[in-house]
Amino acid sequence: MRRDMRKQGVLFLGCMIMILGGCSNRNKMDDFIPTPTPSPTPIVDENDLPEGTAGATDTPLDELDLSTVETTPKYVKMDKFGSTLNVRATPSTDGDVIGSLVHREKVDVIEIKDGWAAFVNDNRIKYVKAEYLVDDKPDFLDPPTATPTPIPTPEPTPTPAPTAKPTKAPTPVPEEKPPVKPDNSEEPEAPEETKEPEAAAEE
After folding, report:
1. Which segments within 12-164 are labelled E, that is strand?
2. Does residue 157 lie within any of the structural domains?
3. CA–CA separation, 101 and 138 (whole Å)
4. Which domain holds residue 90?
5. Which residues, in sequence order, are CB contacts of 198 under 8 Å at separation 6+?
6. Could you tell me if residue 24 is inside a domain?
7. Are 121 and 132 in contact, with CB atoms under 8 Å apart?
8. How many domains does the chain have?
9. What are the beta bridge partners of residue 134?
């Protein structure tokens, strides 16, 4: 009986050892199985999206709620000082021009497709050429340097030589000449005095 009990005890111990050993090995196996590390979700910048995906949506533009639609800020960049960018009602050069934008002006772009940028303005979708939009606000443009208009040099007009005025000869003053005496003329004799006859004395 004691031998049987010993055998049973040995078998029991053996079973316990095997059970405990199996659990230990399973834990060791679990330690060697790599646990997958979740990769972070990449953050995509809308500016890095290819053309046609800036704020892209499958909903037609005319059905969007413009008060809640996502937009991307862009800025107008022109090449020449004083030039403007046409704003059109449709994405085509044949579309009606309904306004204009100036250099450095900000627009809220919904999407860029086929070279045209759709943006929201006055609760309405409008279009401009996407090539004139940039992500960062550009610098100011320098005004062109005014080229002074050359003043034509007048050709010298020859000064006519002064014409000598004829000198007017002074009018000669006639000289007073003494009366000319006739030749062999005698001076007239003085008339003799005529004496009156004396009155006879009265006796």
Report:
1. 72-76, 85-88, 97-101, 106-113, 116-121, 124-129, 133-134
2. no
3. 14
4. 53-134
5. none
6. no
7. no
8. 1
9. 75
Is the pLDDT confidence value at 188 over 70?
A: no
From 94, 97, 126, select the one nearest 111 (Cα to Cα).
Answer: 126
Instruction: CATH number of the domain at 79, please.
Output: 2.30.30.40
d(CA 70, CA 118): 12
Task: Look up tokens 């937009």; give the residue.
Answer: 71
Q: Is the pTM of this model over 0.85?
A: no
What is the b/e burial string over 120-155, where b = at least 16 CB atoms within 10 angstroms of the residue's CB? beeeebbbbebebbeeeeeeeeeeeeeeeeeeeeee
Structural domain contains residue 48: no
Residue 33 has pLDDT above 80, yes or no: no
Chain segment 154-187, per-residue pLDDT in tens? 888 888 777 777 777 777 777 777 776 666 555 5
Beta strands in 20-178 (DSSP E): 72-76, 85-88, 97-101, 106-113, 116-121, 124-129, 133-134
**160 lies in a domain?**
no
Within 10 Å of residue 69's Cβ, how many Cβ atoms?
16
Provide the 10 A C-beta neighbour count for residue 66.
Answer: 15
